[in-house]
Amino acid sequence: MQNIKRPRILIVDDVPANIKMLREVLKSNYEIIFATSGPDAIELMEPKSLPDLILLDIMMPDMDGYEVCRILKSDDLTAKIPIIFITSKDDEEDEIKGFELGAVDYVTKPFSIPVVKARVQTHVELKQQREILENLS
User: Fold this and answer.
1) Is the pLDDT of residue 82 over 50?
2) pTM
3) By C-alpha distance, which of 121, 92, 123 is closest to 105?
């Protein structure tokens, strides 16, 4: 029987309590890794251990989530990793900017746990299906 690896989620947030809450609700179905800054998140991008999905806060010191997203989407190694912004920025302009930078979804804080779980599951499944199709061609 093939060993199925659990999808890997990277949580990037400068507030440890947010990481802890998201980790608690997702750890039963996913392998969770985390970073507390944009530069740390980018440093975690190793070819053999890339995340299947990134939950990314926008408002962080040093490098905001928009810049992290821009950098990841401009690199062939990480361009296809789905990014969901999780943020307290709830203006339509912020949401549009996130989508323009390549995010697949946008969840505002305070977030609903069932909504986050559903969106994570949906985007992980979409990524898995896309990879299956790419491997067929």
Assistant:
1) yes
2) 0.94
3) 123
